[in-house]
Amino acid sequence: MCGIVGAVSQRNIVPILIEGLKRLEYRGYDSCGVAVHQDGGLRRARSTSRVAELQAQAEQDGIQAGTGIAHTRWATHGAPAVHNAHPHFSAGPGADVAATGRIALVHNGIIENHDELRAELKARGYVFVSQTDTEVIAHLIDQHYSGDLLDAVQQALPRLKGAYAVAVFCRDEPHRVVAAREGSPLVLGVGQEENFVASDAMALAGVTDQIVYLEEGDVVDLQLGRYWISQLDTRTGRYGTVQREVKTVHAHSGAAELGPYRHYMQKEIFEQPVAIANTLDAVTGISPELFGDGAWRIFKEVDSVLILACGTSYYSGSTAKYWLESIAKIPTSVEIASEYRYRDSVPNPRTLVVTISQSGETADTIAALKHARAQGMNHTLTICNVATSAMVRECALAYITRAGAEIGVASTKAFTTQLVGLFLLTLALAQTRGHLSEADEARHLKDLRHLPVAVQAVLALEPQVIAWSEEFARKENALFLGRGLHYPIALEGALKLKEISYIHAEAYPAGELKHGPLALVTAEMPVVTVAPNDALLEKLKSNMQEVRARGGQLYVFADGDTAIESETGLHVIRMPEHYGVLSPILHVVPLQLLAYHTACARGTDVDKPRNLAKSVTVE
Ligand code: F6R
């Protein structure tokens, strides 16, 4: 999603800004831009193409300076078009901002009261040239400007409702950038006689490793060789200094080599054995303290679990519900974060609130967490892939998955490592509640440790999956079936297929077929079936017969010992081994490969599927 980079330095910072944008590209965007303070005025370049094209444009136009801001935009208000791309300029009432400008601004997030502010600013004579909510912020700051940019920003911000991270500079103050955050992530990068701001430390990799994670409501004034962070004191209505810790962060550059792979998604699917092994690296035994100090006391106190997440992370939570209820015997509900935050629910202070997130910055999940806390549920834990993220900072307890940077928009290795973290949580809660014998603990740990090898064996099925994907590439619809623990895996398989191949895919618990979706089954409808050799296998086989009797084409991922054989209308890929309760972690892998190869066969932009962003930092 949107990305911000800004800098104040004595050297030319345009290459740093462009490189920063390149590092944020994986988040997804549909336009980009850069603005600098040059020759006493504002200059900018904007593009609806890739950052590389913006770079060429900036070089051709001779854009270079020591102060500037840059942005990748994922359109929310206003189409992806050059006039809507950031940075936006303001130049006072009635001014032609395209020709000149006083304030330059980039913004991540959504301003909810932009209509009201736009009407007010128009009445004052401000001319709007975009359909964005962002442009109102530039004009609002301009309206308050009387020689001190920080003062103008501090006066403007309390008028904004919604979520934002902004970076601003002014024609009249050449060596200054002011930035602020409320609801969207922003970091400050501290250099030698130069300072930087970015929406992610990764954007500053190689520039500085001295990072301050700005907190909600922080406003930072960046100048050459100094910075100052302030917060509004709502009692006095004045801004006061706040101290924030400077951390040494060895951020990953994000420019991981593709090696022998065609796409990051394929690379990440194949990294799963290592990602799982890394996630288990520090686990020598099961104990609540794996989740942080004080976990034992909290686990003892809770009598239920509430999981909050979005998308793929929601499906890992949905899988974990089966584990938590059957192994730890603890009542568990799983809620889509964007729904939970707006519905009336019955809070139980003895609930363990678990958020799941790859990025740790998903706005809906963070808001749902805050909603749960506001209702008195203070026992919070996150399963997250980014140790420095807002989610980890907001939760009392955490388990950090060690999937490594996930660049492909479609989540793969983050999902399987989340499942590992959630299984460990299940075992730790089971232990605290007296439902885990030493023998069980040893058996589960042995199975967990063998997982990387087991996943590797599943990855060897790739050639067989490729053969299927050529048929899938010609379809426009697909159904996915699973039962029990594997129903969320069917959901995840359908999500993967639709988001990267654009084939309409739906998943059902197989027993639901006859209650409606069977009407869709024809010879044209591929029905992907997840068939582990578990207690529901015979029921599943009956559901498969219902499909075959109607001429449907079944594509079954069956465990080795299921005795399901290929025949007309029934295609089988045999999974190497049945893996008991951890089977979902194996069964999702061929579904990832099926989506990936089908998308390749259809020629879509696999790593950056249309309309999607990696880190969804707006509501
Ligand atoms: C799908 C996918 C998304 C994310 C969702 C939540 O492949 O990646 O559905 O799972 O946007 O993101 P995180 O896990 O970062 O909170």
UniProtKB/TrEMBL annotation:
It catalyses: D-fructose 6-phosphate + L-glutamine = D-glucosamine 6-phosphate + L-glutamate. Keywords: Aminotransferase, Cytoplasm, Glutamine amidotransferase, Repeat, Transferase. Residues 295-435, 468-609 form the SIS domain. The active site is at C2 (nucleophile), K614 (for fru-6p isomerization activity). One of its GO terms (molecular function) is glutamine-fructose-6-phosphate transaminase (isomerizing) activity. Pfam families: GATase_6, SIS. Residues 2-225 form the Glutamine amidotransferase type-2 domain. Gene3D superfamilies: Glucose-6-phosphate isomerase like protein, domain 1, Glutamine Phosphoribosylpyrophosphate, subunit 1, domain 1. Its EC number is 2.6.1.16. Its main location: cytoplasm. It is an enzyme of class 2 (transferase). It comes from the Bacteria. It is found in: Cytoplasm. Homodimer. Catalyzes the first step in hexosamine metabolism, converting fructose-6P into glucosamine-6P using glutamine as a nitrogen source. This is Glutamine--fructose-6-phosphate aminotransferase [isomerizing]. The lineage of its organism: Bacteria, Pseudomonadati, Pseudomonadota, Betaproteobacteria, Burkholderiales.
